UniProtKB/TrEMBL annotation:
This is succinate dehydrogenase. The keyword Cell membrane does not apply. It comes from Candidatus Lambdaproteobacteria bacterium RIFOXYD2_FULL_50_16. Residues 4-386 form the FAD-dependent oxidoreductase 2 FAD-binding domain. It is a peripheral membrane protein.
């Protein structure tokens, strides 16, 4: 199968790229490969909203303020050229999405409604009740169908193929019959989403967010960036880790400890519950450690109180949150406070790309949560990720069209396909005995304990050693289901392999970085160290399959380094 452009991933990032490319050149042959049905991509789970300085609610909001809030939120690790592009494009993209049919919630005057969100100095977050991602994804899918984009649903990316530093396409497995297919193309966009599911039970992520794109990139010689920065969202449901959107606090919900105190007054007296996520998560963790949390068999937690907002507002603006609380906690937020705790939520790091979404291999691009452009630096602001996938999805779509018309014939050889077949056959090895679910559980536990919200040298050293040991055991992991029809066990084993590679980057990067910045909090190095650590971390896979860590400078602009207070 030969295409002009192959896009791996059918979330918001991948679909916007496809849409932009086909609108620019309807003659292009574009394939979108996705391991899940497109509308089941994690983008559909996004609740709270998407930022743009439209100045509908606060008339004095500006693009410059959005830029500054994002740089400050990133703890000055974000690249200022990318952040400027992100914020400048935001109002254009929201209006475009509205024209494509996304049903945004409205203010009295009919303009798009905007709610307050963490770390933002103005009410800037545009939303569709608490189902923003769902509506964004459905809108984009409709448009892709309209333009005849070809989808390969339930195909799993196995490898990215290049020759002489030039993209040749990808190899993928059809999950329905376990047959291998090559997709030859001069341009490939990786839009495979995040990887915070490696924290397993303590994660808000969909089961498929296992970082396959990043792992395939490492194997193809493409570096990853800033992997130690994992965002813990303050309010995951106590038992499942499922998300309660920041929008709940944006609408006026507040956090209380076991004394009934609004404890955020101690940590962020001005912003209170709407401080940035890294700060609010750390505050919750401190309250729990100081014995001010609530006890339960599912672990300690604090409470998010919405009862004072009233039934009407909750039903109108947070209906999905109410459903999730009733189904997964047996608590109706109209009547009683919600039990919550921090949950691994977002991956700031990812495939290293520049503002044009290019990797180090000609013709291979990356966008979305699986990429690191870097607009979020050490800590992402709520509402900036949907924006990231829209803005840079579109940008990648623009960039590939330029390229697709100029390049020659791509070629994936038979031996490249055979290598992948051997890899799959090897996974069915007869002497294999390790259980994938046990390794997966142990991975989540060691990351949660040793590379969580607060980190130390000792804990991270243990975390790195544990991941090395699990990677060794993974070599003998058993695919228990030998059927070739819809073998989900085979897919889960491959996903575990991706998570282990990326987990090694997270743990090694966190051990190396001897400072505290954004989401990365070292108890043994409690302050930000701009002299030694104001730089991006870069991760490469060695020929032996190990991970080597190096660094690269941050792109600065008109905003100098400052202390970050809220
Ligand atoms: C619960 C939740 C709520 C959120 N709320 C907000 C919010 O309110 N505002 C905000 O800005 N951000 C929010 N975020 C973050 C935001 O939704 C995501 O960062 C963003 O949607 C990611 O989009 P994406 O296109 O990069 O990837 P995804 O939407 O995750 O899609 C990834 C795609 O890659 C495909 N894929 C992955 N691996 C493979 C493989 N091996 N082979 C083939 N295909 C593959 C998948 O099938 C899928 O189609 C939220 C995230 C979560 C988890």
């Amino acid at each position: 199968m030969t295409y002009d452009i192959v896009i791996v991933g059918a979330g918001g990032g991948g679909m916007y790229a496809a849409l932009e490319a086909i609108r620019r050149n309807p003659a292009l042959k574009i394939a979108v490969i996705s391991k899940v049905y497109p509308t089941r991509s994690h983008t559909s789970a996004a609740q709270g909203g998407v930022n743009a300085a439209l100045a509908n609610k606060h008339k004095d909001d500006t693009i410059d303020l959005h830029i500054f809030d994002t740089i400050k939120g990133s703890d000055y690790l974000g690249d200022q050229d990318s952040i400027t592009y992100l914020c400048e494009q935001a109002p254009i993209l929201i209006r475009e999405l509205e024209n494509l049919g996304a049903p945004f919630s409205r203010l009295e005057d009919g303009s798009i409604a905007q709610r307050p969100f963490g770390g933002a100095s103005r009410h800037r977050c545009c939303y569709c009740a608490d189902k923003t991602g769902h509506t964004v994804l459905q809108t984009l899918f409709e448009q892709c169908m309209r333009y005849g984009i070809q989808f390969f649903n339930e195909y799993y990316l196995l490898s990215i193929e290049e020759n002489d530093g030039k993209c040749q396409g990808v190899i993928a497995l059809n999950l329905r019959d376990s047959k291998i297919h090559k997709f030859e193309a001069n341009s490939v966009i990786l839009a495979t989403g995040g990887y915070a599911k490696m924290y397993w039970h303590k994660s808000s992520n969909a089961a498929g967010l296992t970082g396959d794109g990043g792992a395939a990139a490492l194997r193809a010689g493409i570096p990853l960036k800033d992997m130690e920065f994992v965002q813990f969202h303050p309010t995951g449901l106590r038992k499942s880790g499922l998300l309660v959107t920041e929008g709940a606090r944006g609408e006026g919900g507040y956090l209380i400890n076991n004394k009934g105190e609004r404890f955020m007054s101690k940590y962020a007296p001005e912003k209170m519950e709407l401080g940035p996520r890294d700060l609010v998560s750390r505050s919750i963790e401190i309250e729990i450690r100081e014995g001010l949390g609530f006890e339960s068999t599912a672990g300690q937690f604090i409470k998010l109180d919405l009862t004072h907002l009233g039934a009407e507002l909750i039903m109108q603006r947070l209906p999905q949150i109410r459903e999730l609380c009733i189904y997964f906690e047996g608590v109706d937020p109209i009547l009683e406070p919600i039990p919550v705790r921090p949950t691994a939520h977002y991956s700031m790091g990812g495939i290293d790309v520049n503002t044009s979404c290019e990797t180090n291999i000609e013709g291979i691009y990356a966008v979305g949560e699986g990429a690191c452009v870097s607009v979020h630096g050490a800590n992402r602001l709520g509402g900036n990720s949907l924006l990231d996938i829209l803005v840079f999805g579109k940008r990648a779509g623009m960039e590939v069209v330029e390229r697709a018309s100029k390049s020659g014939q791509p070629k994936i050889s038979d031996s490249q396909v055979e290598d992948q077949q051997k890899y799959i056959d090897g996974l069915f090895g007869k002497t294999h005995h390790e259980r994938y679910d046990v390794i997966r559980e142990e991975l989540g536990t060691t990351l949660g304990e040793n590379a969580g919200i607060y980190r130390t040298k000792d804990a991270l050293t243990k975390g790195v050693a544990d991941v090395y040991e699990l990677r060794e055991r993974f070599k003998k992991v058993k695919v228990a289901d030998h059927s070739r029809l819809f073998n989900t066990n085979l897919m889960q084993v491959m996903e575990l392999g991706s998570m282990l590679d990326l987990a090694l980057c997270v743990a090694k990067g966190a051990l190396a970085r001897e400072e505290s910045r954004g989401s990365h909090s070292r108890i043994d190095f409690p302050t930000r160290d701009d002299k030694n650590w104001h730089k991006h971390s870069i991760f490469k896979m060695t020929a032996e399959g190990d991970i080597a860590v190096s660094d690269k400078p941050v792109t600065m602009g008109k905003h100098e380094l400052q202390e970050r207070t809220y």
